[in-house]
Design brief:
The protein has about 425 residues and is of the alpha/beta class. The chain has helices spanning about 5-10, 25-35, 45-50, 65-70, 105-120, 135-145, 185-200, 210-240, 245-250, 275-285, 290-300, 305-315, 345-355, 385-390, 405-415; strands at about 15-20, 40, 75-80, 90, 125-130, 155-160, 180-185, 205, 325-330, 360-365, 395-400, 415-420, 435. The protein has 2 domains: about 5-210, 3-Layer(aba) Sandwich (Rossmann fold); about 230-435, 3-Layer(aba) Sandwich (Rossmann fold).
Length: about 425
């Protein structure tokens, strides 16, 4: 048993988490709850200050949980990267976005590895959790970390374990979602699994880092393609005068051979809109086309345009032009009951509406104002939702179906409702105002 294995078995290992966002903070919570000391690394000073004062930065993680982590001295956040040398395991939880040409933007992973290489020491474990293409850990990360003069798999250990976070899902937490783990070597796998087993209920070891990387890609390709299918069916069935939501509900009664997926105004979140294209990019290096992924991407990417088209049609029926009309977008988050804006189709809907001359406001109970993103900066504030306020708009566009919205009140007072989420399914009166999109 080497030094690191001994520390893990005795639960004395210190875990460092690089990136304290939607992946890093929940992971920190689980290790801290298991009695492991966690050092969280981030470059966002206001975030660090807030966390160290015992306050959460995420809606689905209560302040009380962060406060307990801090009060129990099981968690501290810092921007001092030199402290990386004091931890025993470094779990990398940084963004992996796409470039404008839909190629992997690995700058955050590369910068993280370059930083770690300055401080890495023998017997440390480095694990990437960010979703990426097969080959990242071995081909991209290991050579950068080995600039330290240490050898991956010999002097220090490497593994890949994809995050499987689903913010807002009350049925699963980081602790209860099985953890897929792939190691650079057999010893790397053994050590990584033993660490995760402290905080996670079930680990799923696979034969290589590449297999683990491919596992997460498969999960998201599966969802991307099936969502694209129902989005396309929504448009086809709409022309036929058939309600796709009714069809999905009926099909779901089949006890085998069918899993329901639901249409929407476009894909959101960090995973489904982005991760499949990591595989597309990698497959091109092997001369292999990925037709399903490309087609699914085209359909899903075009959904906001479809919603705008349906909005224009609905306004035309009322002898109004979209240009000059007042439109209220309900919901800015990418899915209901969370405060996560990443890749939200609502952002593009607002930008498209503005481009076409509409006067646009939004309401989201969890996002009081927008913040600057990598490619967007709306500079907007959430409008307070009242019956009088709703009645002042020419159209209300439901983009995110938050549970706390009173859809009966919304439909009653709105002149026109564009429903992209079937949120008004249970509204009985004034249904002539509702247009599915």
């Amino acid at each position: 048993m080497n030094i690191l294995e001994k520390k893990i078995s005795e639960r004395k290992a210190v875990v460092g988490i690089l990136g304290l966002g939607y992946v890093g903070l929940p992971l920190a919570r689980e290790f801290a709850s298991a009695g492991i000391k966690v050092v969280g690394f981030d470059i966002d000073e206001p975030k660090i200050k807030k966390l160290n004062s015992g306050k959460s930065i995420l809606k689905h993680i209560p302040n009380s949980q962060v406060k307990k982590m801090v009060d129990d001295k099981k968690f501290v956040a810092t921007s001092n990267m030199s402290r990386l040398k004091s931890v025993d395991a470094i779990l990398i939880c940084v963004p992996t976005p796409l470039t404008k040409s839909r190629e992997p933007d690995m700058q955050f992973v590369v910068k993280s590895c370059e930083t770690i290489s300055k401080y890495i020491r023998k017997n440390q474990l480095v694990v990437l959790e960010s979703t990426t293409y097969p080959g990242t850990t071995r081909e991209l990360m290991a050579p950068i970390l080995e600039r330290s003069g240490l050898k991956a798999g010999k002097d220090f250990f490497m593994a890949y374990s994809p995050e499987r976070e689903d913010p807002g899902n009350a049925n699963f937490t980081t602790k209860t979602i099985p953890k897929v783990v792939g190691g650079l070597t057999e010893k790397c796998l053994e050590i990584a699994c033993s660490l995760y087993e402290i905080a996670i209920v079930n680990t799923v070891p696979v034969s290589s880092v590449e297999a683990a990387e491919a596992t997460k890609i498969l999960e998201n390709v599966y969802r991307c393609i099936n969502i694209a299918m129902v989005n396309e069916l929504k448009m086809v069935f709409d022309r036929m005068g058939i309600d796709v939501w009714e069809v999905i509900k009926a099909a779901s009664t089949k006890p085998f051979g069918f899993n329901p997926f639901y249409p929407g105004p476009g894909l959101g979140g960090h995973c489904i809109p982005i991760d499949p294209f990591y595989l597309t990019w990698k497959a091109r290096q092997y001369g292999m086309p990925t037709r399903f992924i490309e087609l699914a991407g085209e359909i899903n990417t075009d959904m906001p345009n479809y919603v705008i088209h349906r909005t224009m049609e609905a306004l035309n029926e009322k002898r109004k032009s979209l240009k000059g009309s007042k439109v209220l977008v309900l919901g800015l988050a990418y899915k209901k009951d969370i405060d996560d804006l990443r890749e939200s189709p609502s952002i593009e809907l607002i930008e498209l509406l503005k481009e076409k001359g509409a006067k646009v406001d939004y309401n989201d109970p969890f996002i009081p104002k927008t913040h600057k993103q990598r490619e967007h900066d709306l500079k907007m504030k959430s409008r307070k939702l009242t019956a009088k306020m709703i009645a002042s708009y020419d159209a209300v566009l439901i983009s995110t179906a938050h549970s706390e919205y009173d859809y009966n009140m919304i439909v009653k007072n709105a002149k026109l409702v564009i429903d992209t989420r079937n949120a008004t399914a249970n509204v009985k009166s004034n249904r002539s105002k509702i247009v599915k999109a």
